[in-house]
Design goal:
mainly alpha, 14 helices, disordered C terminus
């Protein structure tokens, strides 16, 4: 890939720059020859794939699908991914419903192969998967240099959907803890150290709730359906990231100083 998304020096200043330029830059990246070839191949080949075995045996197809859901680290775990793809999403005991990380369930549903007889015509949502592929590639392009912005972009897309879901608030918190990208946003925003993840999961949920209520006046994940609440969380996370990376004087130095005492 030849195009590199421009975000200045990263952090919150890079985030504000990206807000003004993201649409244009994303369109430019989507036209990159490597991305175009991958999208064309996926769109042509996926409708011919009916089983999980066929899916995991095609490196190019699997690479696009896993990237779309932020799961490319599992590229070598083909047996595991095969089980994920072919699992019945309507069975509460299937692997995709037992995994706390719901990206696997989303992958399963998008491909539509988790049913008797394999995929049916049109079962896979090719367009939606390719949109996610471009978005994730855009984010990863940035994340190779500034992971904090990649994580913030991911949270901006995923957190509102979780906030608006019909799950209980505790379930939403468990899903946040089960998603490494979302977990890092909250741990970073709350200034939690590396030992936090060693606590029992119920203690982690309680601590997250306490910190969020102190920050916003509410411990409910549902509040992140509101754009303003979400942006405030991401701003706090990005400013804290600047503190941790040893940011020097910036237009946001006062905010950084305030957050040190949070």
């Amino acid at each position: 890939m030849t195009y590199q998304v421009q975000v200045g020096q990263g952090g919150y200043t890079g985030w504000k720059l990206l807000e003004r330029t993201a649409e244009t830059q994303r369109a430019t990246l989507a036209r990159d020859p490597e991305i175009l070839r991958s999208r064309t191949y996926f769109a042509e080949k996926l409708p011919q794939v009916k089983t999980a075995d066929q899916m995991v045996s095609d490196y190019r197809l699997l690479n696009v699908a896993l990237r779309a859901f932020g799961l490319e680290a599992d590229m070598k775990n083909r047996l595991f991914i095969k089980k994920v793809i072919e699992a019945d999403p309507n069975d509460s005991n299937s692997i995709v419903n037992r995994l706390s990380d719901k990206r696997y369930l989303n992958l399963n549903r998008a491909l539509g192969m988790g049913q008797a007889g394999g995929a049916t015509e049109g079962a896979a949502d090719v367009g939606a998967i390719l949109d996610l592929y471009v978005s994730k590639t855009f984010e990863r392009n940035i994340g190779d240099r500034y992971q904090e912005i990649e994580l913030a972009l991911n949270a901006r897309r995923e957190l509102p959907a979780l906030a608006e879901s019909g799950s209980s608030d505790n379930t939403k918190w468990y899903q946040i803890l089960g998603s490494q990208p979302l977990r890092k946003i909250f741990e970073g925003a709350f200034g939690l150290g590396s030992t936090f993840g060693r606590l029992p999961v119920d203690r982690q949920v309680d601590e997250m709730k306490t910190r969020l209520e102190k920050m916003t006046g509410s411990s409910s994940v549902a509040q992140f359906a509101e754009p303003e609440k979400l942006e405030n969380l991401l701003k706090t996370y990005l400013l804290r990231s600047s503190i941790n990376s040893g940011a020097s004087a910036t237009p946001y130095s006062a905010a950084l100083t305030i957050l040190r005492g949070y």
